[in-house]
Specification:
By secondary structure, the protein is of the alpha/beta class. The chain is built from 15 helices and 18 strands. The two termini are 29 Å apart.
């Protein structure tokens, strides 16, 4: 399995973040990397915003700072579509991988690879959040604003998160990644409530649109090893992207997935189609001039994002769902990310009555035994 471990070209450390255990760990592991102490992160981020390619340049450098807001937030499901009551932990921001469709190119005002080192605040916030959410199964994870494992060889954050959530059996904790950076996962004791998830796509899309990411087969190798270690695994086909030959391309990966991983060890599979704010279109055009993903038949949805015309989405989803269910029937829970009740009803033959219903649907196997 190929190793592609990120190392920044330079590290910026906010003065107030010196002395934290995670700061010392990072600087110790990356002692050979040039480091500059700064007073405020705005000194640096203002400079990057003026560059021709802030997103690309920011990936080269790491910022060590503190999370001054909330670590734990509800996942920002797009208005007008069904959410799944998922919560996110924003411990690290940005990603050194460079996927053409990534919304972080537009969404984050700070383009640097950012590590929040005030872990004591994270644990306090998690304790408070969980104590005020009794008598329910929660789904919470990292990986919304940055890959969960791409920095793990430096921060070892997964080790601490796994240790924390192992003692919280009513919480389903998920780490989401496109990487094969799983050494710390494979060294940890597995727990049924800790899910390790991979974003998958067809080989064509992975090669053309997911710059810097391991191949899909490498991801499946990593998932196989993690599953055999005893962790439940999950997969996110998101964004599904139309191109000539997409039906065969996705079927090949779905066949490889269920050949590599026992379906009974898969916690869930999510499906989502390409969607993005209109402002991202010019960024993709400028940063990835060879990409063709923005030239398909896209229309503005209820949330203002560009997405495939509904008949195209229905055909896309129906094909993928049939390919999955032809292999494993209904053994693996499937759900849509940011889709309408109509899509749920026409493709999955169910229409959850709100986000709590989706939360219950996905946590049901864990409540009553997998």
């Amino acid at each position: 399995m190929a190793e592609r471990k990120y190392v920044p070209e330079k590290i910026f450390v906010e003065r107030g973040s010196l002395g934290f255990p995670l700061t010392e760990k990072i600087l110790g592991k990356l002692a050979h990397i040039p480091t500059e102490i700064i007073t405020r992160q705005e000194e640096i981020t203002a400079h990057y915003k003026k560059l021709r390619d802030p997103a690309g340049e920011g990936k080269k450098h790491m910022l060590i700072t503190q999370q001054k807001g909330d670590f734990v937030k509800p996942c920002p499901c797009t208005p007008g579509y069904l959410g799944c009551n998922y919560f996110i932990i924003n411990a690290d921001l940005n990603c050194p991988l460079d996927c053409s469709y990534c919304i972080l190119q537009l969404y984050l005002s700070n383009p640097l690879i950012t590590v929040h080192v005030n872990a004591d605040a994270l644990w306090r916030q998690l304790d408070y959040f969980l104590s005020h959410s009794p008598n329910r199964f929660l789904r919470i994870g990292t990986g919304e604003l940055g890959d969960s494992l791409v920095l793990d060889h430096i921060t070892q954050r997964s080790t601490e998160l796994i240790a924390y959530f192992r003692s919280k059996p009513s919480v389903l904790f998920e780490l989401k990644t496109k990487t094969v950076n799983t050494d710390n996962i494979l060294s940890a004791s597995a727990s049924e409530n800790i899910v390790i998830a991979w974003s998958l796509n067809s080989d064509v899309i992975a090669q053309k649109e997911e710059k810097g990411a391991p191949s899909v087969m490498e991801r499946l190798e990593a998932a196989t090893a993690v599953s055999k270690r005893g962790f439940p695994v999950a997969f996110h086909f998101d964004p599904l992207i139309l191109y000539s030959g997409w039906e065969d391309g996705y079927e090949e990966i779905i066949d490889a997935l269920f050949t590599a991983v026992n379906a009974d060890r898969i916690a869930w599979i999510s499906l989502g189609s390409l969607r993005f704010p209109p402002a991202l279109k010019d960024i993709i055009k400028n940063r990835f001039p060879d990409s063709r993903i923005i030239y398909e038949e896209l229309v503005r949805g209820e949330d203002g994002k560009l997405r495939y015309f509904k008949p195209l989405r229905l055909r896309l989803y129906t094909t993928i769902v049939n390919q999955i269910q032809n292999r494993v029937g209904n053994r693996v829970p499937l759900y849509f990310c940011m889709e309408s009740g109509e899509i749920w009803r026409k493709v999955l033959k169910k229409e959850p009555k709100g986000k709590e219903a989706i939360e219950n649907y996905l946590s049901l196997p864990f409540r009553y035994g997998r």
